[in-house]
Structure formats: C-alpha cells, structure tokens
Amino acid sequence: MIVVDTNLLVYLFVGGQRTTQAEAVLARDPVWVAPILWRSEFRNTVIGLVRKRALPLEDTVQIVSEAERAMAGREYSVASQRVLHLAARSRCSAYDCEFVSLAEDLSVPLVTADRQVQRAFSSIALAPEVFLC
Distance (Å, rounded) from C-alpha 8 to C-alpha 6? Predict the structure, then answer.
C-alpha cells in the first residue's frame, strides 16, 4: 500500500508524458490510497485541461468516473490538527500535508512528484522514480 498524490492519479488516468511512469508505480504497488481531498484536486486539474481544450468534457467525465471507481474504498479522512501542524512546520500547503498526514498515519510511503513535499518530508515522500528503484 502507498499513498499517492493527485498528480500521480492524473498521470495514470489522463494519458501523457508521465503515464508510463504512473503505470509502473501501479504495477509495483497496486494498492493506492489517498485522502478524500484527491477528488476535488483531480476534478480541478481535469477541468483545467478542458478549459485549455486539451481534453473534451465528455472524456473528462468518463476519466473522473473511472478514477473514482478505482479509488473507491481507498479514500481516507485526515485529522485537521495534524495537517495544520505539518503545514506550519514545512511551509507546504495544507492540501499537500493531507497526503503526508495520511502516509504517516498508515506508515506507508507517499509517492509524489512534488519536489517541495519530497524535500520537506524526505523520510516518507518519494519521487516516483525513487519508488521504482
């Protein structure tokens, strides 16, 4: 089991340059979990692609449904107090710290492409390429 951030989920479900890497992470560990926040971040990211005309709305609706099905039963609530302490300590966003908090609570790695999170939480946050080594 690993915690994955929203970017990794987008890489997996929206074809692009980093899809192959996301697929390799999934092959290495197929049990992906995330805080419930992932849904809002995912929707926000894909609607941005619609607005840039990089993805049709109809495809986006299907992609979101597919991602939600894949993550069903693998979404967790996190404690606000802990998230706020992590954010204050690291200067990372509270959004990012939800993923860190969940990884710490479950004692599993957080796989993220976010360099700031990797630096601030180097004991638990791994780049996809590091996770794959």
Answer: 5
Closest of 4, 2, 14, 1 to residue 113, by C-alpha: 4
Q: Do the beta carbons of residue 20 and residue 93 sit within 8 Å?
A: no
Residue ranges of domains in the chain: 2-131
Q: How many residues would you count in the chain?
A: 133
pLDDT tens string 37-94: 999 999 999 999 999 999 999 999 999 999 999 999 999 999 999 999 999 999 999 9
pTM above 0.85, yes or no: yes
Residue whose entry in the numeric block shows the structure tokens 């404690």: 79
Q: At the topology level of CATH, where does 2-131 sit?
A: Rossmann fold (3.40.50)
